[in-house]
Amino acid sequence: MSAALLLDRLTLDADQILTGDAINEDYSHDECVNVAAVMPAVVLTPRSAEEVSQILTLANELGVAVTCRGAGTGLSGAAIPDTDGILLSLERMAAVIEIDEANHVAVVQPGVTLGELDEALAPYGLVYPILPGEESASLGGNVATNAGGMRAVKYGVTRHQVLGMEAVLPTGEIIRSGGKYVKFTTGYDLGQLIIGSEGTLAVVTEVTLKVVPRLAHKATLLAPFATLAEVTEAVPTILHAGLVPLMLEYVDAMAMSATSESLGLDLGMPAEIKEGALAYLLVVLESSDDDRLQADLERAGSIVGEAGAMDIYVLPAAAGAQVLEAREKAFWVAKEHGANDIIDVVVPRASIPEYLDTVGGLAAEHEAWVAGAGHAGDGNVHLSVFQGDAEKCSALMTAILAAGMELGGTISAEHGIGLAKRDYVRALEDPAKLALMRRIKQAFDPNGILNPGKIF
Ligand SMILES: Cc1cc2nc3c(=O)[nH]c(=O)nc-3n(C[C@H](O)[C@H](O)[C@H](O)COP(=O)(O)OP(=O)(O)OC[C@H]3O[C@@H](n4cnc5c(N)ncnc54)[C@H](O)[C@@H]3O)c2cc1C
Question: Are 223 and 304 in contact (CB under 8 A)?
Answer without folding.
Answer: yes
